[in-house]
TrEMBL record:
Protein's name in the database: DUF294 nucleotidyltransferase-like domain-containing protein
Record bears the keyword Kinase: no
Organism: Paracraurococcus lichenis
Cross-referenced PANTHER family: CBS DOMAIN-CONTAINING PROTEIN, CBS DOMAIN-CONTAINING PROTEIN CBSX3, MITOCHONDRIAL
Tree of life domain: Bacteria
Gene3D superfamilies registered for this protein in UniProt: CBS-domain (3.10.580.10), Jelly Rolls (2.60.120.10)
Length: 606
């Protein structure tokens, strides 16, 4: 009995202790010679192989599809669904655990979590594995730092100010507690203190606020743990405590902010954005949005829901910034639009700026120049890096009158270069977020009209999917180098996300579908008969796989300060089950690319 079998290796970690003991009693060890064909297409599998040492090549009609290494298993499809669809050939001397087919089928019937690994559709596999994630609970919230919780701004009022003035300033700042500075002391006054002073004590409105505040301030440091703050609140019967950082008071931590750590701050951030009275007031909620992504991911929220929440919050931020900075001439005649993953509603961790401005009528040049600089500069200050391709409001190419942009779109159509095609793709994802939304619709309709019937142009546009290769997944470094990164990593954006996103964009453009999100485009194209509903589900599930793995990479890159690796996934660091899902996703992308090649005769572009 091979007692060394690693039962912590997914999907075996989903088995009970009794099932693991049963499995260990039944497995054997097999030896494979270099070049030995373990399974061939059409052959029924009698064992589930789990590699101990060595490697096995997976070939589809002679083309290398994957290279499996230690802890990888094969072939689950042949085991459950009848017969192998690919060749499995030992690349070197290889040792494998051999798990009898009958036992595997029995465990599948008894254990739903284990069975999920053997689903034939990527969509079902992904849903099952996403459900198996262990979200962090209350313990992780209590171990969070005070600075991670949303908290109100620190308003400082002089003790000599009247209670009427204090009330007005607190109302203007949309807060319910403020600090009071008086003769070297720091106190706290709340809205309830002011209300009691006027209604119950009947104090004159001119009464100095020092008379109604309290100077026994209960404070925590921003680096303290949440549980320490909760202890203070409980001990002193307080709903809020003061927060200090570097010796200065920086705001208040309230019980509702701690609740926000449990359910996420997505309900609290919009209020802070809407209450902002200046660009500076938006800086804190902008950072909260970023922190919210990591918090939601830790709590087990699915990546598509994280993207939806993040996109909604970012749009609120852009709208409020537009309202604060745009002069009346631009607010009356302009439309702020966002593009890229923001426009598609697929943004998670903040990347670069992708925005623009359309004008329906002339505005003073001085107004336009000042707004361009202020808007892009403010976003950069919030942590949105400038777009390398300068697709942002500060670039006159992307902030101009409607007729000017329509002329530019037609020029790009006539240029027929990869750069022009990419600019068309960027605008095709545009969404209006503030102002005259009809301007974006008019520009898109003009673009669609100019491209109607231009089959060769659509094909050139679709050919952008060939910009990057989609590699096989395995242990051979040469395969990884195809996407232009180190031999130990895959650029998941280039290899997986971009081909699906742009392929759907091209097919939607071809059929005049103006839906912006990739999921919406897939649904519309299925309804139009472009491909089957089953393939549409697998494409969407593969996209979610890639978005999940990219989000993990992004969060890790942020933690390590290695932002250049924000799209890199290292297969060696994934579990065997995660590698299996990633292989399935990459296989679907290769199928989709082949479909695009055939449909648009992409071979003609060399």
């Amino acid at each position: 009995m091979p007692s060394a079998f690693d039962a912590s290796n997914p999907p075996f970690d989903r088995l009970t202790q009794e099932e693991i003991a049963e499995l260990r009693a039944a497995i054997d060890i097999g030896y494979l010679r270099p070049g030995e064909a373990v399974l061939i297409p059409g052959q029924k599998a009698e064992h589930l192989h789990v590699i101990i040492k060595g490697s096995v090549e997976v070939r589809d009609n002679g083309t290398l599809d994957a290279v499996l290494g230690p802890k990888d298993s094969f072939d689950s499809r042949a085991l459950v669904h009848g017969a192998a669809g690919e060749d499995f050939i030992a690349a070197e001397e290889t040792l494998c655990y051999l798990i009898p087919r009958g036992l595997v089928l029995d465990l599948i019937a008894r254990n739903a979590a284990f069975a999920a690994f053997f689903y034939s559709e990527v969509s079902a596999k992904l849903d099952a594995f996403a459900g198996a994630r262990r979200p962090e609970g209350m313990e992780s919230v209590l171990r969070a730092r005070v600075r991670e919780a949303s908290r109100g701004p620190a308003l400082m009022i002089e003790g000599s100010a009247s209670i009427a003035d204090a009330a007005q300033r607190m109302q203007d700042a949309s807060i319910n507690a403020a600090y009071v500075r008086d003769d070297g002391r720091i106190g706290v006054v709340t809205g309830m203190n002011l209300a009691k002073a006027v209604l119950l004590q009947r104090l004159p409105h001119e009464t100095p606020v020092r008379e109604v505040c309290h100077f026994d301030v209960i404070a925590v440091d921003a680096e303290d743990f949440i549980f320490e703050a909760l202890l203070l609140m409980t001990r002193h019967t307080k709903r809020r405590v003061a927060v200090r950082s570097g010796g200065d008071y920086t705001g208040f931590l309230e019980d509702i902010h701690i609740l926000g750590l449990v359910a996420g701050n997505s309900q609290l951030i919009p209020g802070r954005i809407d209450r902002a009275r200046s660009v500076a007031d938006l800086a804190a909620p902008a950072q909260d949005i970023q922190a919210q992504v990591e918090r939601l991911h830790r709590q087990g929220v699915k990546v598509e829901q994280i993207a939806e929440i993040t996109s909604d919050l970012n749009r609120r931020l852009f709208v409020r910034l537009f309202d604060l900075l745009a002069p009346a001439s631009i607010r009356d005649h302009g439309c702020l639009m966002i593009m890229g993953s923001e426009g598609r509603g697929e943004q998670t961790v903040r990347t670069d700026q992708d925005n623009g401005l359309l004008l329906g009528a002339p505005v003073p040049e001085a107004d336009l120049t000042a707004f361009r600089e202020a808007f892009s500069g403010a976003l950069a200050g919030f942590g949105f890096p400038p777009c390398p391709g300068r697709v942002m409001v500060s670039n006159p190419l992307w902030s101009q009158p409607l007729d000017g942009l329509v002329r530019q779109l037609r020029l790009w159509i006539m240029e027929r270069t990869p750069e022009a095609a990419m600019n068309l793709a960027i605008f095709f994802d545009a969404v209006a977020v503030s102002g005259r939304a009809g301007l974006v619709t008019e520009a898109k309709q003009a673009m669609a009209e100019a491209m109607r019937g231009e089959r060769a142009l659509i094909a050139r546009f679709a050919n952008l999917v060939e910009t990057f290769q989609t590699p096989a997944l395995g242990v051979l470094s040469t395969l990884m180098e195809k996407v232009g990164v180190g031999s130990d990593a895959i650029d998941i954006k280039k290899a997986g996300i971009f081909p699906i996103v742009h392929g759907m964009r091209a097919m939607a453009m071809d059929r005049g579908i103006l839906v912006t999100s990739t999921a919406g485009r897939i649904e519309a194209l299925v309804e139009a008969g472009a491909f089957s509903a089953a393939f549409g589900r697998e494409l969407l599930s593969a996209l979610r796989v890639f978005m999940e793995y990219r989000l993990r990479a992004q969060l890790e890159a942020v933690r390590r300060g290695t932002l250049e690796r924000e799209a890199l996934v290292e297969p060696g660091e994934l579990s065997a089950a995660d590698r299996d899902i990633l292989r399935d996703g990459l296989r679907i992308v290769r199928q989709f690319r082949e479909m695009l090649r055939n449909r648009y005769a992409l071979a003609a572009f060399g």
